[in-house]
Write a structure and sequence with these properties.
heterodimer, A: 111 residues, mainly beta, six-stranded mixed β-sheet, five-stranded antiparallel β-sheet, 11 strands, B: 114 residues, seven-stranded mixed β-sheet, four-stranded antiparallel β-sheet, globular
Chain lengths: 111, 114
């Protein structure tokens, strides 16, 4: 089976940097992805790590350590519109590209 | 920008009734998925579909569920006899060959079973 744990809630101020952690246990691993979901909306792909290290995409970066079964999403220069839920997700080895999502972290950006 | 579309946006049904949720994946994508999200919970995988057959399904996807690609554009999820616990947001998603981690999600259908 697969399980992914994230903090339930993180609060930060506009302009700050925030890190959202994800630890996972998985029987097969084909990369760690991050998705953003605004209230009532569709999950939107942000980033993906197949190998260890940091991937940078604009204000968002994602890090993976496969030996530690750990990754994080780093959001810089926070904006109010970044207030949303963030999910890490692992693609498993079942052959069907199944994504197993984490418990989700609700990010609140305050003035 | 191409996007996944879903209809209806909201479906209300009585317990025991059949529902069909419809999706139009992005046109050049070959892999299609259904996920669901119970209010306040995480997104859960239901089924994936490739080359006109199911490639993987979860334990949630029991005999009450079926998927179909009836033509070149639509992808449907049928629930034969709905239960109260089927109430959730159902998301369709699609992905390109080789980019399996970047799945594009539709806006969802909120299913309410009374």
């Amino acid at each position: 089976g697969q399980s992914l744990e994230q903090p339930s809630e993180v609060t930060a101020v506009e302009g700050a940097i925030v890190q959202i952690n994800c630890t996972y246990q998985t029987s097969g691993f084909y990369g760690l992805s991050w998705y953003q979901q605004h209230d009532g909306g569709a999950p939107t792909f942000l980033s993906y790590n197949a190998l260890d290290g940091l991937e940078e995409t604009g204000r968002f970066s994602s890090f993976l350590s496969r030996s530690d079964s750990y990754g994080y999403l780093l959001l810089q220069e926070l904006q109010m519109k970044d207030s949303a839920s963030y999910f890490c997700a692992v693609r498993g080895a079942g052959g069907g590209n199944k994504l197993t999502f984490g418990t989700g972290t609700q990010l609140k950006v305050e003035l | 920008e191409p996007e996944v579309t879903q209809t209806p946006s909201h479906q209300v049904t009585q317990m025991g009734q059949e529902v069909i949720l419809r999706c139009v994946p992005i046109s050049n994508h070959l892999y299609f998925y259904w996920y669901r999200q119970i209010l306040g919970q995480k997104v859960e995988f239901l089924v994936s579909f490739y080359n006109n057959e199911i490639s993987e399904k979860s334990e949630i996807f029991d005999d009450q569920f079926s998927v179909e690609r009836p033509d070149g554009s639509n992808f449907t999820l049928k629930i034969r006899s709905t239960k109260l616990e089927d109430s959730a947001m159902y998301f369709c998603a699609s992905s390109q060959q080789g980019a399996y981690n970047e799945q594009f999600f539709g806006p969802g259908t909120r299913l309410t079973v009374l």
